[in-house]
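Predicting holo structure, magnesium ion bound.
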Amino acid sequence: MRIDTRIIEVNDSDSTESLREKLMPAAELIKNGGLVAFPTETVYGLGADATDPSATARIYEAKGRPSDNPLIIHIARPQDAEKYTYTGELYYRLAERFMPGPLTVVLPAKSIIPPTTRGGLPTVAVRCPSDRVASTLIELSGVPIAAPSANLSGSPSPTTAVHVISDMMGRADVIIAGADCEFGLESTIVQVDGGGVKLLRPGKITVEDIEALGIEVSVAGAVTDRLAEDEVALSPGMKYRHYAPKAPVLLLEGDRTSCAEYIRAEKCERVALICYSEDIGFYRAELPYADFYDFGGGNDRMTQAHRLFDILRSADDMNYDVIYAPLPKKDGIGLALYNRMIRAAAYKIIRL
Ligand code: TXA
Ligand code: MG
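Done. Tokens:
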């Protein structure tokens, strides 16, 4: 069923007062069981009242998302987690350093969060976004906002207003069209695990950042490797094929001469290369028939994170036979890039 979607435009230059005024109707809608797509510092989310099972049911329907995949609840202040979860000392150590910001913490749930919001799990994931639009919307709504990424299930998370409008027009009641998301990959997710944490999804807050607080971090196997058939995903989202364009994506590891030779030998006609800026000139000379997408400098992972989903979406519209991309290294923010890119590539890595 298509619904009438209202678009509310917001700008960085809006004063606090004018932003609140613009967001008030969206907050009213959330309180009344509506669906609102909104920007955050990671990716755009599709939000509804986390305490209202019929509102969250609409999220699953709008995204075409399996209902056993739980939602993150978004709160205005880190201490609001108290109302919905059983926190603890470790939560507050993380919160003090990283919240508001792109970190999600999985904690034991209180019963005010209905099982439908948490995919039937005994836990719930909480996140306190730093983005001004997101935090104003949550505060004005007065309820925790359950929000997955605002993409249709199976396409890359939206990082621009254009992406959200393309996926959610006719599906959400309101789309808040703001700036491009600052980071561009989804939040880091950790689960409190004894005295330490387990990393379920890598993001801008890195393993190294958390370890610097003296907290031990173990990395869930599914972050870097495909789950075995009989393995239970700690984070249900890990078991779904994610972020994958229609064209096959191949990740190449090797020097650029070997990569160019490999690509030429494959003899595909419609070829796209996602390239580090400094390599584009070389590849263009070697493979003049290919299309090129500038991924940012090889060492500039912030730019790579910012561009990845937009590049995958643009390339997806072009009906390529194949999309080649470099295999990222796994340290720092590289781990988040690696995690998203091996999924986009359905784990196909060519080592040369
Ligand atoms: O950056 C983000 O986190 C964005 C913005 C909108 O905040 N949200 C987002 O939500 O990425 P989503 O639903 O696309 O991804 C949430 C992931 C899923 O893989 C889900 O399985 C996992 O979090 N998750 C949610 N609740 C969980 C829980 N209780 N235990 C383990 N994993 C959980
Ligand atoms: Mg998602």
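Residues 40, 42-43, 45, 69-72, 104, 106, 118, 121, 123-125, 127, 147-149, 186-187, 189, 200, 235-237 surround threonylcarbamoyladenylate (ligand 1) (CB under 6 Å).
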